[in-house]
Amino acid sequence: MQEKIMHPKKERSLVIIKPDGIQRSLIGEIIKRYEQAGFKMVGLKMVMPTEELTEKHYTIDPDWVRKAGEKSIASYDKKGVEPPSRDPLEIGNIVLNNLKKYLTSGPVIAMIWEGNKAVGIIRKITGGTEPLSSDVGTIRGDYTIDSYDIADTDNRPIRNLIHASGTVEEAEAEIKLWFKEEEIFEYRLVQEAILYDVNLDGIMEKS
Ligand code: GDP
Ligand code: MG
User: Fold this and answer.
1) Taking CB atoms and a 6 Å cutoff, what residues make up the pocket around ligand 1?
2) In this structure, are residues 10 and 114 in contact, taking their beta carbons and an 8 Å threshold?
3) DSSP letter string over 123-166?
4) Against a cut of 0.85, is the pTM above it?
5) Which of 112, 134, 145, 158 satisfies CB 3.0 to 4.6 Å to 128 for a cystine?
């Protein structure tokens, strides 16, 4: 039997407004950015994350700790400062421990957004990890000013308002971690006719 291929309009991404986003009163502004781009919200809740949930979330990709360590060492090298260690796993674990403190510091908003190429477009709207170098017009670029050097100097994670899934596979695993099946909604949005219908034949009144 032929496997049914998922329609691209069904792609989903997990977005979390981190504690700094809530404290900055940016919930509505952040939701607006994804909503007005054309994505459909299919899940939403406020959560007080635990350290266990945070660790599970960041280790869904078993290579994340090493990659985070490598990224951090590269940012030390770029500014000509010797990192506390040259072992990517050791540095990655420091980043992970700091993220546990960050995400458990206050409530977060977890949401699932659905639509064509949701993961990639949502990353684009969100902007790069470091707000200092995120493009203008992205959420991180427009609403905050943090940088690797100040965060690393103070031994804390970059405060960049949002988590957004990195790949489709990561998104699927993250959604399972944060949401129960019954907390995810399948419904139709009127605007989907404009975004996805093959023929735009429902607009004009018939004479
Ligand atoms: P994201 O996918 O853009 O959120 O970035 P990553 O998945 O690589 O990292 C997760 C989070 O860890 C980021 O959003 C930052 O809050 C923090 N972080 C990652 N790398 C670094 C780093 O090198 N230094 C600091 N201070 N924080 C980092
Ligand atoms: Mg990531």
Assistant:
1) 68, 71-72, 75, 95, 99, 129, 148, 151-152, 157-158, 160, 163, 166
2) yes
3) HHHH--SSTTTSPTTSHHHHH----HHHHHHTT-----SEEE-S
4) yes
5) 134
Distance 154 CA to ligand 1 centre (A): 14
Tell me the C-alpha to C-alpha distance, in Å, between residue 40 and each of 29, 30, 136.
16, 14, 24
Sign of CA dihedral 84, 90, 91, 94: negative
Q: Which two tokens stand for residue 2?
A: 């032929």
Long-range contacts at 189-194 (CB < 8 A, ≥ 24 apart): 189/40, 191/38, 192/9, 192/40
For 8-48+106-196, CATH gives 3.30.70.141
Closest ligand relative to 130 C-alpha: 1
Question: Across the chain, where does the E strand assignment appear?
Answer: 12-17, 40-47, 108-114, 162-164
- What's the gap between Cα 4 and its chain centre? 28
Query: Which candidate, 115, 122, 116, 98, places its Cα nearest to that of 16?
Result: 122
List the one residue out of 188, 171, 166 whose CA is nearest residue 11.
171
Q: What is the pLDDT along the chain (207 residues), one digit of tens a residue?
A: 556 788 999 999 999 999 999 999 999 999 999 999 999 999 999 999 999 999 999 999 989 999 999 988 998 888 888 888 999 999 999 999 999 999 999 999 999 999 999 999 999 999 999 999 999 999 999 999 999 889 988 989 999 999 999 999 999 999 999 999 999 999 999 999 999 998 888 888 876
